[in-house]
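Batch manifest line 383
LIGAND: flavin-adenine dinucleotide
JOB: complex structure
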Amino acid sequence: MHYELTPELTMMREALRKFVRAELEPLEKKVDETGLLPDHLLPLMGEQGYLSMRLPEAVGGAGMGLFPYCLMLEEFSRSHRIFGLLASGGGGLTPIAIARHGTDEQRQKYLTGLMKGTLRTAFALTEPAAGSDNSAMTTQATRVEGGWVLNGRKHYINGAHEAHFVVVIAVTDPVKRTRGGVSAFLVDRGTPGFNITRVDTTMGSDVIKLAEIELTDCRVADGALLGQPGQGFDLAKESLRDGRLAVSASCIGIADRLLEMSAQYAKSRITFGKPLSERQAIQWMLADTEVDLAAARALVYETLKQIDAGLNVGSAANVCKLYCSEMVGRVADRAVQIHGGMGIVSGYPIERMYRDVRHYRIGEGSSEVQRMLIAKDVLKRVS
Ligand SMILES: Cc1cc2nc3c(=O)[nH]c(=O)nc-3n(C[C@H](O)[C@H](O)[C@H](O)COP(=O)(O)OP(=O)(O)OC[C@H]3O[C@@H](n4cnc5c(N)ncnc54)[C@H](O)[C@@H]3O)c2cc1C
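JOB STATUS: finished
ARTIFACT:
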């Protein structure tokens, strides 16, 4: 299906497509094998403006709305999920949260480095006893003279082990809790009491690592508070909404690449004297993927445009995340089937993508959590 884009957006997407083909696709295999990002990558992305697409022009960004921004994320993710993650600021869209809610001092301290690719960040909400139910968090920040003291444990925090600073969500008022008693803090690596205690690799790709953070009497100054005291849960929810749309865009990008590779393979692979592409069984799989993708794009693009127009979209971001994360799983499964043995051979992108897309149904809120939130919205609409 063809989507008409403005000439400016078409140009930006073409330029990015060239960048992805020239600079990122050649790195895919190495990044996967070593679990490491080459040192030049983030500064290169920063130089090209790909780390500041969504940030307001006032702070040096491109000021993109969610729709064009997510189109760009689609292109990054076609290559490798990590590149989409880097382009979205790594940790839960932290850069945009600082641009929106940070003080001048915080913007100066962090945004330039994030935009240039010399600083990395992470977003720490999840805890061992507070995953889907993040309102059960126990990490606490206690007010002391001139600052706050943080105690608690966060886990599954993407990239925290490499982050120069982490946004930590903590309870600041145990009575109000998620109703105005949770705050967000910018905690620098090296702050006494802030320790990375474990780093897990995941089934998708070794370059995606989840870290555990132990906070023990970790003292931060007043200037570490992001936004107002008590605003932390709203800030996390805002970040999760945009994060769920970013995930949806990534799923679309990956599904698009899988379809392209499957169609190419089907045309070139001969069985029983004919290309696979001439077999109805294979054509139907390609057709089902095309339908899945078209539905995902229609849903996500319309939601993004409505948000950019300032409309209240209710639970649409949850609908997008649920649909797209499940869609890409179906698409990856068909891609493996079309590729046969080639689809399960390590080191070939199909196998990596098949493993890698599984996490989309868990991270940024699982499918069950999305369904809970969508159902809540539906039930609110009727008396
Ligand atoms: C790749 C990846 C990256 C991540 N990055 C970050 C990050 O950077 N920062 C961060 O803070 N967190 C991060 N997370 C954590 C993620 O947000 C949590 O894993 C997720 O919210 C689920 O929490 P949990 O793992 O504790 O599962 P649990 O909450 O224990 O749930 C286990 C299962 O039970 C289901 N379930 C739970 N409650 C219900 C219910 N009421 N009804 C029906 N089913 C239910 C869930 O859907 C899930 O399938 C990441 C996770 C992944 C996989």
